[in-house]
Design a protein that fits this description.
Blueprint (H helix, E strand, L loop, with lengths): L1 E3 L13 H10 L2 E6 L7 H10 L3 E5 L11 H8 L4 E10 L7 H24 L4 E6 L2 H11 L5 E4 L5 H4 L6 E5 L9 H6 L8 E3 L21 H12 L3 H16 L2
Parallel strand pairs: 1-2, 2-3, 3-4, 4-5, 5-6, 6-7, 7-8
Helix pairs in contact: 4-5, 8-9
Bound molecules: zinc ion.
Length: 256
């Protein structure tokens, strides 16, 4: 049994055929899902989906791209829900290019402020964090080291680097997704064997980051299988061993 620990089922791209997507997922052995909070506008939809499906859970959080729409009160309204398992995805993303130096400084300031507040929220309610990091490894690590509690969390690892490996010692897990199957994923393939096995989690980040050979199409939780196959191959484990380890890791971190 596989858990897709990061899948945006509340994305409008699934509105029409969500039940079909979940059916295909279950058929592929992917029977539980965690919907991370990203756009505050679809949080209620995520709660609704989690309430309607036994294997479905959600997290409350605001993606760095939506940092300007951050509203702690909205997150607090749902954080005590029995199906809320984490805070996130929150973090830093410096990929988006901005016009001027002042705008970049201001964007970084807002992202950091909103990230730190969500780290505090997780600590306050004793929830693990789901962390999004893109081209901001050093700053993210600094903030996590300064503010995160013992509960740790998972790093959304699509541009994993050696810097972030240090976080394994601080209770952090690594979400491995479709990027691992990309032909040009040299960096992640290189870092992957150095991630301790007891820190690996499987995630699709669907509808984004569709694994090979379906790249370019909408991603689906069923494709966790393709990711797990690649992980097993690179770990020198059988598919059953690898998915068993990840299942146990998921239970340890999220309590599901
Ligand atoms: Zn995501």
């Amino acid at each position: 049994m596989i858990v897709d620990t990061h899948v945006h089922l509340d994305d409008p791209r699934y509105t029409k055929d969500l039940e079909e997507v979940l059916r295909r997922s279950v058929e592929a052995g992917v029977t539980q899902w965690i919907i991370p909070g990203a756009d505050p506008g679809t949080l209620e939809r995520a709660v609704e989906i989690a309430e309607a499906h036994e294997g479905c859970y959600f997290a409350v959080g605001v993606h760095p791209y939506d940092a300007r729409n951050y509203d702690r009160k909205l997150l607090e309204r749902y954080i005590g829900h029995e199906k809320c398992v984490a805070v996130g995805e929150c973090g830093l993303d410096y990929y988006r290019l901005l016009e001027s130096e002042e705008e970049i400084v201001e964007e970084k300031r807002i992202q950091k402020e909103v990230f730190v507040d969500q780290i505090a929220l997780a600590k306050e309610y004793d929830k693990p964090l789901i962390v999004h990091i893109r081209e901001a490894s050093r700053d993210s690590q600094e903030l996590l080291e300064s503010y995160a509690g013992k509960r740790g969390g998972v790093l959304h690892c699509y541009n994993a680097d050696h810097q972030l490996l240090q976080m394994a010692e601080r209770g952090f897990y690594y979400g491995i997704g479709g990027v691992l199957t990309f032909k040009n994923a040299r960096k992640l393939v290189e870092v992957y064997p150095r991630i301790p096995r007891e820190r690996l989690l499987i995630e699709t980040d669907a509808p984004y980051l569709t694994p090979h050979p379906f790249r370019g199409q909408r991603n689906e939780p069923a494709y966790c299988r393709i990711i797990a196959e690649k992980m097993a191959e690179l770990s020198g484990l059988s598919f059953e061993e690898l998915t068993g380890i990840c299942r146990e890791n998921t239970r340890r971190l999220f309590g599901i």
